[in-house]
Amino acid sequence: MRVEEHTGGVPPPIADEAAGTGPDPVGDEGGTSRTRRRPKRDREATRRRILHAARDLFGEHGYDGVTVRMIAARAEANMALVNRYFGSKAALFGEVLAGESTLRGVIAGDPEGLPRRLAEHFVRQIGQSHVTSISRMLDRSAGQPEVKEILLHYLEEQIVEPMAAQLDGPDARARALLASTIIMGGGPVRRLLGTGDLRAADPAELTERLTAMFTAALAPLPR
Length: 223
What we know:
Layout: E1 24-27, E2 33-36, H1 40-61, H2 68-75, H3 79-86, H4 89-100, H5 103-107, H6 114-127, H7 133-141, H8 145-165, H9 172-193, H10 196-200, H11 203-218
Antiparallel strand pairs: 1-2
Helix pairs in contact: 1-2, 1-4, 1-7, 2-3, 4-8, 6-11, 8-9, 9-11
GO molecular function: DNA-binding transcription factor activity; transcription cis-regulatory region binding
Pfam families: TetR_C_16, TetR_N
Domain HTH tetR-type: 44-104
């Protein structure tokens, strides 16, 4: 979010205390003083620190167990900057979620190769030896009303809409939703039941089976 200059009756920008930046009076050619904006690179660095702090805290404590004050303290930033850059804790959670997701990149590309790319992504998730940040966030935040709205937005913006845009023919959204149930449903099953049996299976065989599943889900529905 852009920080307004201190001109007339507009309040001065909030200083980033951690980065040591903020309104710095400097002389102009006419000998008067003006307020210099905080350098863009400092704003971006502070924004990244806030995102990283929020990701870690949401993963550790869940959405309801984290406050804006906690995020600001972990990021070593002025608390007002969290709201200034992101608007609210809910909006920050949504941005962290979108930033951690790799699905939009998986979906992009040749439409004909989409089922296989989705299958390969699924198999990669199975093979991971550590719990991802996004999984920890979802595990510890499920059930919160605000999080439900964020997840609906995430599902639409990051998965359903991009996937539907790749599909020709009728009922593109319905077909994208059907494939999304495989993607999103796999996470809870893996976390609840574990992936030991699936890891023991041949990854190539799993990829072929999942490719067939995604191909069937994304195919035009019979009329």
